[in-house]
Amino acid sequence: MKLVGSLTSPYVRKVRVMLAEKAIAYELIEESAWTATTTVPRYNPLNKVPALVLDDGESIYDSSVITEYLDTLGNGALLPRDAPSRAKARRDEALGNGIMDAGVAIFLERKRDAARQDAAWIARQRDKIDAALKALERNVASRGTNASLTLGDIACGCALFWLEFRLPEIRWRDNATLGPWARALEARPSFASTKPPG
């Protein structure tokens, strides 16, 4: 199988971490959706990454769809089988995705000319991130330190590390719960091997 995506995308990293955790072999097709010559629409008509090209040539896309598919392959499961635990892991994945969505919205808005940037829009996205970080702190604290890794952890970890990469003013590492939790994640080979360049 082939994974189409950018090395700096948090959504792509979420999939790459899952592939590493489950020891699934794949070929990475490094591609940006933002260049004039992008080939991403060949794999995803929405021109978004990641896209996963299956061995039969069919593509599946949206990181949540891809990760749900990947959880049926390889070693172990990162989505619990019992319904309540599964729902919590999917909820945490949605939380991580939401942090990514809001962070990317801020990042893109700041790329516009300063006179055209919408400060209220940026503030609204920042409020989402701040509320999500508080929810993540509660979720992490309630699970304890011996909890098994889930897809929700992967998504939230990728979101935090992307914030640090692109929006470093959001100093989540100072949080007494999130800082140690994230350090444990980034010590895992799956996270260490997928760190964005630069």
Secondary structure blueprint with pairings:
Blueprint: E1 2-5, H1 10-21, E2 27-30, H2 40-43, E3 51-53, E4 59-61, H3 63-70, H4 83-111, H5 119-143, H6 151-166, H7 178-186, H8 189-192
Parallel strand pairs: 1-2
Antiparallel strand pairs: 1-3, 3-4
Explain the overall architecture:
With 198 residues, the protein is of the alpha+beta class. It folds into 2 domains: 2-70, 3-Layer(aba) Sandwich (Glutaredoxin); 83-188, Up-down Bundle (Glutathione S-transferase Yfyf (Class Pi), Chain A, domain 2), CATH 1.20.1050.10. 54% of the residues lie in helices and 7% in strands. It is built from 8 helices and 4 strands, in the order βαβαββαααααα. β3 and β4 form a beta hairpin. The longest helix has 29 residues, at 83-111.
In the predicted model, the low-confidence regions spanning at least 5 consecutive residues are: none
Total tally of structural domains: 2
CATH C-level class of the largest domain:
Mainly Alpha
Outline: globular
* Widest beta sheet: strand line-up: 2-1-3-4
CATH topology of the largest domain: Glutathione S-transferase Yfyf (Class Pi), Chain A, domain 2
Strand content: 5-15%
Task: Write a short abstract of this structure.
With 198 residues, the chain is of the alpha+beta class. It has helices at residues 10-21, 40-43, 63-70, 83-111, 119-143, 151-166, 178-186, 189-192; strands at residues 2-5, 27-30, 51-53, 59-61. The protein folds into two domains: 2-70, Glutaredoxin (3-Layer(aba) Sandwich); 83-188, Glutathione S-transferase Yfyf (Class Pi), Chain A, domain 2.
